[in-house]
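Below is a filled-in request sheet from our internal design queue. Each sheet records the structural input a requester submitted and the sequence that came back. We keep these sheets so that new team members can see what a complete request looks like end to end.

REQUESTER: design group, bay 2
PRIORITY: normal
MODE: inverse folding
CHAIN LENGTH: 490
BACKBONE (tokenized):
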């Protein structure tokens, strides 16, 4: 039966504008806005991290003490509430012992790694989802849960709550943003969950004797989605399935891919408070001003204004292919181009780019920081955006780049495959450059082709075609609404 107003509760471990470490936060912050425009009643549930308490957002206590069992403990917590500018209610689980910390999931230093109590932290969070519903007396039609941190909401729904009348018809959708992160813990931790013992088997949460939170969500959710159609297919293969390809193939009838949108208001070169000069597809003059100022800001040579300025922004991990960039970087510099890198993460990767900074000063600027404003200035000031990701569930930066007339050069995988049209394959339609074999040779060939076209009049056509693509959340949100309706009618 078609509902007049769909009620959706988004449960996730991060969302803009409150807290962000990656693309997940962009989605969980932006999709509700677009769903609201489609007439949905959407609320969001997040942990109350220290970073959120320290922001400007007004928080209001909205529950008495709640009690949540995890293992032999009965934890207590509180629920707080805030509202986004668009009027979307956001609820937070306060449990300072677990969430009032410097980082969301663990220390970025790999020596120190993930917090040891992450299993307890997110079991608590998933169980609190139901306490929230009871407290605010609002039961959604669908729990839209994201990644392993929220994945246990589905087994709790199936095994603890569906028998409670009010939750009897509630459905769940699990969106996987990155299959590489599954929330795997020692098998003995299963006792912490209070889920029935028979669930700790191959058809359930068990994974080679361990607890796998994401797998528990995959087997129990009514539907599973991922963030691009290509990635939805790839994760069913051994190459990209991270050991869960068989589990996902079993659910192939209930697995789909919807490309993420971008927040087209925040990422709009014609109206972006972070960039020095506005521009759009009709008039690109401002982009040159942005480039000039970026070169100056980063201490790059001013005569690079007419040479290709390449950029990459993102987490410094193996996934993102920084090693490939490092290996072709001398070719970029020898061809008279320049490179800007903005990222944080693996200290070994940082060390490589520190070396380049020294070796090629004036042509290379690597900044090891998380800086949203600078990310905007780079998108506006660069000519070419590099994304040689080994895999990329969706990727946002290539879409920001297209919108900013910064032509992407990408490995043809996941969302990169779905959002970039290759100039080599379709010269009249192309919006970027792709390579198809994961090697520095093929990457350089694609980039070299871009360098050649950069010097011709065709470049502006490529830029403009990319800038005119529609990656707004509205079209993705329509697809999610259709999916919610399919789930509810099955
Ligand atoms: P992922 O989710 O795998 O990290 P995405 O491309 O989907 O990659 O999204 C990354 C998001 O985080 C983008 O909005 C990107 O601009 C932002 N980002 C990543 N690293 C940084 C950084 N060092 N400074 C500013 N923004 C960053």
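RETURNED SEQUENCE:
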């Amino acid at each position: 039966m078609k509902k007049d107003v769909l009620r959706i509760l988004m449960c996730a471990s991060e969302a803009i504008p409150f807290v962000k470490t990656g693309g997940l936060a962009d989605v969980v912050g932006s999709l509700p806005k677009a769903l609201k425009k489609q007439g949905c009643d959407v609320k969001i549930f997040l942990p109350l991290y220290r970073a959120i308490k320290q922001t400007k957002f007004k928080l209001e206590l909205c529950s008495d003490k709640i009690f949540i069992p995890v293992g032999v403990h009965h934890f207590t917590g509180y629920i707080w509430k805030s509202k986004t500018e668009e009027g979307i209610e956001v609820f937070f689980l306060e449990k300072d012992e677990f969430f009032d910390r410097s980082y969301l999931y663990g220390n970025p230093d790999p020596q120190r790694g993930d917090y040891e109590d992450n299993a307890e932290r997110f079991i608590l969070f998933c169980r609190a989802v139901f306490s929230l519903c009871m407290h605010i007396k609002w039961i959604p039609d669908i729990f839209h849960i994201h990644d392993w941190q929220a994945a246990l909401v589905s087994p709790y729904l199936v095994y603890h709550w569906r028998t409670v009348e009010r939750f009897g018809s509630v459905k769940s959708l699990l969106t996987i943003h990155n299959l590489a992160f599954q929330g795997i813990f020692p098998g003995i931790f299963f006792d912490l969950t209070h889920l029935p013992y028979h669930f700790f088997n191959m058809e359930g949460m068990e994974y080679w004797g361990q607890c796998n939170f994401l797998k528990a969500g995959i087997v129990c959710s009514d539907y599973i989605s991922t963030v691009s159609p290509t990635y939805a297919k790839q994760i069913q293969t051994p190459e990209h399935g991270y050991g869960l390809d068989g589990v996902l193939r079993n659910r192939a009838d209930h697995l789909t891919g919807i490309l993420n949108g971008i927040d087209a208001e925040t990422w709009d070169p014609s109206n972006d408070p972070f960039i020095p000069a506005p521009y759009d597809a009709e008039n690109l003059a401002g982009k040159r001003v942005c480039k000039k100022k970026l070169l100056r800001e980063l201490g790059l040579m001013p005569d690079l204004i007419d040479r290709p300025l390449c950029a990459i922004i993102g987490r410094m991990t193996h996934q993102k292919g920084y090693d490939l960039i490092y290996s072709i970087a001398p070719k970029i510099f020898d061809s008279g181009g320049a490179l800007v890198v903005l990222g944080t993460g693996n200290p070994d990767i940082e060390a490589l780019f520190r070396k380049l900074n020294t070796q090629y000063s004036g042509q290379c600027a690597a900044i090891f920081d998380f800086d949203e404003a600078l990310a905007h200035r780079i998108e506006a000031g660069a000519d070419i955006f590099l994304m040689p990701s080994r895999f990329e569930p969706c990727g946002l930066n290539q879409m920001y780049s297209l919108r900013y007339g910064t032509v992407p050069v990408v490995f043809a995988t996941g969302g990169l495959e779905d959002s970039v049209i290759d100039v080599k394959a379709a010269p009249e339609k192309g919006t970027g450059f792709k390579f198809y074999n994961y090697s520095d040779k093929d990457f350089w060939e694609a980039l070299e082709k871009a360098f050649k076209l950069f010097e011709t009049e065709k470049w502006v056509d490529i830029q403009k075609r990319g800038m005119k693509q529609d990656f707004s959340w509205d079209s993705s949100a329509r697809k999610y609404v259709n999916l919610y309706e399919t789930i509810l009618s099955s």
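SHEET NOTES:
- The mean pLDDT is 96.
- The pocket of adenosine-5'-diphosphate is lined by residues 22-23, 26, 313-315, 342-344, 370-372, 375, 394-397 (CB under 6 Å).
FILED BY: M.R.
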